[in-house]
Amino acid sequence: MWIAVVASAGGHWAACGGGSSGVGTPCHESDTCADQLFCSGPNDPPVCGIAPREQCASDIDCSGASQRCHAIGDTCSADGIGSECRAACTADPECGAGFHCDNGACAANLCGAGSFTCPVRQTCDPSRIATNAPVHMRTHGCFDITCSSDAGCGSRFCVNGVCQDAVGTCQKPMLVP
Q1: First-to-last CA distance in the chain?
Q2: Sign, CA torsion 107/109/111/113
Q3: How far apart are CA 26 and CA 71, in angstroms?
Q4: Is residue 102 over pLDDT 70?
Q5: Which of 7, 153, 138 is nearest to 82 (CA)?
Q6: Any alpha helices (H) in the chain, and if so which ranges?
Q7: Dihedral sign for Cα atoms in the order 103, 108, 112, 117
Q8: Region of residue 98 (left: phi > 0; alpha: psi -120 to 50; beta: else)
Q9: Is the dihedral of CA 75, 81, 85, 89 positive or negative?
Q10: N or C: which end of the chain has fewer CB within 10 A?
Q11: How many Cβ atoms from other residues are within 10 Å of residue 54's Cβ?
Q12: How far apart are CA 169 and CA 149, in angstroms?
Protein backbone atom coordinates (compact mmCIF):
# COMPACT_ATOMS: atom_id res chain seq x y z
CA MET A 1 0.00 0.00 0.00
CA TRP A 2 1.32 3.44 -0.92
CA ILE A 3 0.25 6.68 0.72
CA ALA A 4 0.80 10.10 -0.80
CA VAL A 5 2.22 12.44 1.81
CA VAL A 6 2.79 16.16 1.59
CA ALA A 7 4.53 18.42 4.07
CA SER A 8 2.66 20.36 6.72
CA ALA A 9 3.49 23.90 7.74
CA GLY A 10 2.02 25.68 10.72
CA GLY A 11 -0.75 23.10 10.99
CA HIS A 12 -1.91 23.63 7.39
CA TRP A 13 -1.39 20.92 4.79
CA ALA A 14 0.35 22.21 1.69
CA ALA A 15 -2.00 21.10 -1.07
CA CYS A 16 -1.30 20.54 -4.74
CA GLY A 17 -1.37 23.82 -6.59
CA GLY A 18 -2.70 25.04 -9.88
CA GLY A 19 0.12 27.36 -10.97
CA SER A 20 2.75 26.81 -13.63
CA SER A 21 6.06 26.44 -11.79
CA GLY A 22 7.84 23.07 -12.08
CA VAL A 23 9.79 20.89 -9.61
CA GLY A 24 12.54 22.84 -7.84
CA THR A 25 11.11 26.24 -8.71
CA PRO A 26 11.10 28.72 -5.79
CA CYS A 27 7.67 29.27 -4.24
CA HIS A 28 5.88 30.85 -1.30
CA GLU A 29 2.67 28.82 -1.54
CA SER A 30 1.38 25.78 -3.37
CA ASP A 31 -0.96 27.60 -5.75
CA THR A 32 2.09 29.00 -7.56
CA CYS A 33 3.37 25.47 -8.30
CA ALA A 34 2.33 23.36 -11.31
CA ASP A 35 -0.55 20.91 -10.96
CA GLN A 36 0.21 17.90 -8.75
CA LEU A 37 3.06 19.78 -7.01
CA PHE A 38 3.13 21.49 -3.62
CA CYS A 39 5.33 24.20 -2.07
CA SER A 40 7.77 22.65 0.41
CA GLY A 41 9.42 25.02 2.89
CA PRO A 42 12.81 24.29 4.47
CA ASN A 43 11.31 24.26 7.96
CA ASP A 44 8.18 22.25 7.19
CA PRO A 45 7.74 19.30 9.57
CA PRO A 46 9.49 16.11 8.45
CA VAL A 47 7.83 13.51 6.26
CA CYS A 48 8.87 10.27 7.97
CA GLY A 49 6.51 7.58 6.74
CA ILE A 50 5.90 6.47 10.32
CA ALA A 51 3.61 7.90 12.95
CA PRO A 52 4.99 10.20 15.65
CA ARG A 53 6.02 8.46 18.88
CA GLU A 54 3.01 9.26 21.06
CA GLN A 55 2.84 6.23 23.32
CA CYS A 56 1.07 8.03 26.16
CA ALA A 57 -0.82 11.21 26.97
CA SER A 58 -0.37 10.94 30.75
CA ASP A 59 0.81 8.52 33.45
CA ILE A 60 -2.61 6.82 33.34
CA ASP A 61 -1.69 5.37 29.94
CA CYS A 62 1.37 3.58 31.36
CA SER A 63 1.21 0.13 32.95
CA GLY A 64 2.73 -0.51 36.33
CA ALA A 65 3.02 1.77 39.33
CA SER A 66 6.65 2.66 38.56
CA GLN A 67 5.93 3.71 34.93
CA ARG A 68 5.69 7.39 34.03
CA CYS A 69 4.77 9.15 30.78
CA HIS A 70 7.90 10.99 29.63
CA ALA A 71 8.29 13.69 26.97
CA ILE A 72 10.96 12.67 24.45
CA GLY A 73 12.56 14.10 21.35
CA ASP A 74 10.83 12.76 18.22
CA THR A 75 12.06 13.75 14.77
CA CYS A 76 8.87 12.39 13.15
CA SER A 77 6.61 14.65 15.22
CA ALA A 78 5.62 18.01 13.73
CA ASP A 79 6.73 19.81 16.91
CA GLY A 80 9.70 17.54 17.71
CA ILE A 81 8.13 16.17 20.91
CA GLY A 82 6.84 12.64 21.49
CA SER A 83 6.12 10.52 24.55
CA GLU A 84 6.89 7.10 25.96
CA CYS A 85 6.26 5.08 29.11
CA ARG A 86 9.26 4.05 31.21
CA ALA A 87 10.51 4.05 34.80
CA ALA A 88 10.59 7.35 36.67
CA CYS A 89 13.62 9.58 36.15
CA THR A 90 15.72 10.86 39.04
CA ALA A 91 18.02 13.37 37.31
CA ASP A 92 18.03 15.63 34.23
CA PRO A 93 20.71 13.70 32.27
CA GLU A 94 18.34 10.70 32.05
CA CYS A 95 15.99 12.82 29.91
CA GLY A 96 18.41 13.95 27.20
CA ALA A 97 19.26 17.31 25.68
CA GLY A 98 16.43 19.83 25.77
CA PHE A 99 14.56 17.98 28.53
CA HIS A 100 14.63 17.87 32.34
CA CYS A 101 13.35 15.54 35.06
CA ASP A 102 10.25 17.04 36.69
CA ASN A 103 8.89 15.02 39.64
CA GLY A 104 9.98 11.73 38.06
CA ALA A 105 8.88 12.43 34.48
CA CYS A 106 10.91 14.00 31.67
CA ALA A 107 9.52 17.30 30.39
CA ALA A 108 10.61 19.68 27.63
CA ASN A 109 12.75 22.63 28.74
CA LEU A 110 10.79 25.82 28.13
CA CYS A 111 12.04 28.68 26.03
CA GLY A 112 12.57 31.98 27.79
CA ALA A 113 13.87 30.20 30.89
CA GLY A 114 17.46 30.27 29.60
CA SER A 115 17.57 26.53 28.91
CA PHE A 116 16.01 26.48 25.42
CA THR A 117 16.19 29.00 22.59
CA CYS A 118 13.64 29.13 19.79
CA PRO A 119 14.77 29.51 16.18
CA VAL A 120 14.59 33.12 14.95
CA ARG A 121 11.68 32.15 12.69
CA GLN A 122 9.54 31.26 15.73
CA THR A 123 8.24 33.09 18.78
CA CYS A 124 8.61 31.98 22.40
CA ASP A 125 5.31 31.80 24.28
CA PRO A 126 5.13 28.95 26.85
CA SER A 127 1.80 30.37 28.09
CA ARG A 128 0.18 28.85 24.96
CA ILE A 129 0.88 25.32 26.25
CA ALA A 130 -2.18 23.99 28.07
CA THR A 131 -1.25 22.50 31.46
CA ASN A 132 -3.66 19.61 30.86
CA ALA A 133 -2.36 18.90 27.33
CA PRO A 134 -1.07 15.40 26.54
CA VAL A 135 2.64 15.01 27.38
CA HIS A 136 3.56 14.88 23.67
CA MET A 137 1.94 18.30 23.17
CA ARG A 138 3.83 20.02 26.01
CA THR A 139 6.51 21.52 23.80
CA HIS A 140 9.39 23.91 24.42
CA GLY A 141 6.98 26.82 23.86
CA CYS A 142 8.26 27.79 20.40
CA PHE A 143 5.53 28.58 17.88
CA ASP A 144 5.59 29.41 14.19
CA ILE A 145 5.05 33.05 13.28
CA THR A 146 2.15 33.31 10.85
CA CYS A 147 2.53 35.62 7.88
CA SER A 148 1.03 36.66 4.56
CA SER A 149 4.22 38.00 2.95
CA ASP A 150 7.99 38.06 3.47
CA ALA A 151 7.63 41.51 5.06
CA GLY A 152 6.05 39.88 8.12
CA CYS A 153 9.13 37.73 8.70
CA GLY A 154 11.96 40.25 9.01
CA SER A 155 14.98 38.64 7.33
CA ARG A 156 13.12 35.32 6.84
CA PHE A 157 10.63 34.17 4.20
CA CYS A 158 6.88 33.59 4.31
CA VAL A 159 6.25 30.04 3.01
CA ASN A 160 2.87 28.33 3.38
CA GLY A 161 1.68 31.02 5.79
CA VAL A 162 4.56 30.77 8.32
CA CYS A 163 8.01 32.34 8.56
CA GLN A 164 10.80 30.02 7.39
CA ASP A 165 14.57 30.26 6.98
CA ALA A 166 14.51 30.25 3.15
CA VAL A 167 12.06 30.33 0.27
CA GLY A 168 10.25 27.07 -0.52
CA THR A 169 10.51 24.93 -3.65
CA CYS A 170 7.83 23.21 -5.72
CA GLN A 171 7.97 19.45 -5.10
CA LYS A 172 6.14 16.26 -6.01
CA PRO A 173 4.24 14.56 -3.18
CA MET A 174 6.43 11.89 -1.57
CA LEU A 175 5.20 8.32 -1.76
CA VAL A 176 5.72 6.53 1.53
CA PRO A 177 5.25 2.74 1.76
Answers
A1: 6
A2: positive
A3: 36
A4: yes
A5: 138
A6: none
A7: positive
A8: left
A9: positive
A10: N
A11: 19
A12: 16
Please tell me what DSSP assigns to residue 112. T
Poorest-pLDDT segment among 4-13, 23-32, 108-117? 4-13
What pLDDT digit, counting tens, does each position of 69-89 carry? Answer: 999 999 999 889 999 999 999
- Which of helix, strand or coil describes residue 161? coil
* Distances, alpha carbon 124 to alpha carbons 17, 94, 158, in Å: 32, 25, 18
CB-neighbour burial class of residue 17 (10 A; exposed 0-12, middle 13-18, buried 19+): buried
* Burial of residue 85, with CB atoms counted within 10 A of its CB: 0-12 exposed, 13-18 middle, 19 or more buried: middle
pLDDT digits (tens, 9 = 90+) for 114-156: 789 999 999 999 999 998 999 999 999 999 999 999 999 999 9
Average pLDDT, the chain: 86
Global confidence as pTM: 0.78
